[in-house]
Amino acid sequence: MEIAFEEIKALLPQKFPFLMVDRILSLEKGKKAVGIKNVTGNEIFFLGHFPNLAVMPGALIIECMAQIAIILFRKSAENDATVVKNENTIFFFGSAKVRFLKPVFPGDQLQVEVAIVKAISTASIVEAIATVEGQVVAKAELSFGAKRLDEFQKLKE
């Protein structure tokens, strides 16, 4: 299953300038998804990271991985009444164990594969591998929790 940018925008709570997924190349519900981020020299973050040597921040590579995981969770729960299906659901990191192996530069196409290791209705662990032209640039194990927006807002009180 391929997913175009317009549907990605509808599936993700993040909006410009924080959208880190341009297309989903493939998705197996409940298993894995592969997505891409086209890294251009026009990215707003390159103004400060770094002015004399543009390098994609590692935190945004992790964010790309997380957004692909959110898309995988939402598409996997389409025919389910779980909290993940609800468009008012917020996903948040529980933990991230990441290794960065190579920098990502303007002009690169970041391809990220996310696979579910374990999942329940309100939490998940995924493994992610990011590559550029077949070379691994980052690997991660990420854990997530999911809460409805109204429950999440109560945590602020």
What features would you describe in this structure?
The protein is an alpha+beta fold and 157 residues long. It has a single domain (5-154), classed as Hotdog Thioesterase (Thiol Ester Dehydrase, Chain A, Roll), CATH 3.10.129. Helices cover 20% and strands 39% of the residues. The chain has three helices and six strands. The protein has helices spanning 5-11, 58-76, 149-154, and strands at residues 23-28, 32-38, 89-100, 109-120, 123-132, 135-148. The chain has a six-stranded antiparallel sheet. A hairpin with a 2-residue loop joins β5 and β6. The radius of gyration is 15 Å and the shape is globular. 27% of the residues are buried.
Element layout with pairings:
Layout: H1 5-11, E1 23-28, E2 32-38, H2 58-76, E3 89-100, E4 109-120, E5 123-132, E6 135-148, H3 149-154
Antiparallel strand pairs: 1-2, 2-4, 3-6, 4-5, 5-6
Question: What's the domain count?
Answer: 1
Q: What does the largest sheet look like?
A: 6 strands, antiparallel
Q: Which strand-content bin applies to the residues? A: 35-45%
What's the total helix number?
A: 3
CATH T-level fold name: Thiol Ester Dehydrase, Chain A
Structural class: alpha+beta
By CATH, the superfamily comes out as Hotdog Thioesterase
Strand neighbour order, sheet with most strands:
1-2-4-5-6-3
CATH top-level class: Alpha Beta
Distance between the termini: 41 Å
Question: Which whole number gives the mean pLDDT?
Answer: 90
Which range best describes the helical content: under 10%, 10-25%, 25-40%, 40-55%, 55-70% or over 70%?
10-25%
Uncertain runs: none
DSSP strand count:
6
Q: Which value, in Å, is the CA radius of gyration?
A: 15 Å
**Helix and strand sequence:** HEEHEEEEH
